[in-house]
């Protein structure tokens, strides 16, 4: 079983910055993709950004160069640096990871979600 714990959310004024972190723990063999999703009230959960173990990244169009995803494979941690935040970025941000976990016997695929962290952009 693999657990994800997010941190770094909060209240910020428009134009401000926040950095989210998500650490994975448990019987991890390898994490393929780590990513961030967000869900605003009454809306579906959508991809914000994702990064592979090799460092390849993919961003939602609305990010438009404002956010940067990065990853420390030695710590099984993914980060999301968010700059130039807008009120429409207000949402609960969720971390996601998929890969392989150690099991008895062998390894098994896993997909996990964090508990979510609230980001509120308001003056």
In short:
With 123 residues, this protein is mainly β. 0% of the residues lie in helices and 62% in strands.
Helix content: under 10%
- End-to-end separation in angstroms reads 40 Å
Structural category: mainly beta
* Annotation field: number of helices: 0
Strand content: over 45%
Inertia-based shape: elongated
Q: What do the pLDDT scores average to?
A: 96
Write down the Rg: 15 Å
Order of helices and strands: EEEEEEEEEEE
Weakly predicted, low-confidence segments: none
Quick one: biggest sheet? 7 strands, mixed
Would you report the number of β strands? 11
Describe this structure in words.
The chain contains no helices and eleven strands. The model has no long low-confidence stretch (mean pLDDT 96). The strands form two sheets. Strands 2, 4, 5, 6, 9, 10 and 11 form a seven-stranded mixed β-sheet that branches. Strands 1-3-8-7 form a four-stranded antiparallel β-sheet, with no helix packed on it. It is elongated. It has 123 residues and is mainly beta.
């Amino acid at each position: 079983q693999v657990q994800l714990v997010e941190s770094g959310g909060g209240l910020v004024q428009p134009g401000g910055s926040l950095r989210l972190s998500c650490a994975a723990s448990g019987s991890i063999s390898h994490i393929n993709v780590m990513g961030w999703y967000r869900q605003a009230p009454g809306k579906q959960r959508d991809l914000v950004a994702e990064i592979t173990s090799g460092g390849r990244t993919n961003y939602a169009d609305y990010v438009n160069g404002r956010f940067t995803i990065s990853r420390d494979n030695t710590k099984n941690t993914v980060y999301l640096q968010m700059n130039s935040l807008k009120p429409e970025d207000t949402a609960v941000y969720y971390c996601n990871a998929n890969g392989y976990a150690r099991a008895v016997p062998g390894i098994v695929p896993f997909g996990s979600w964090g508990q979510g962290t609230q980001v509120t952009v308001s003056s």
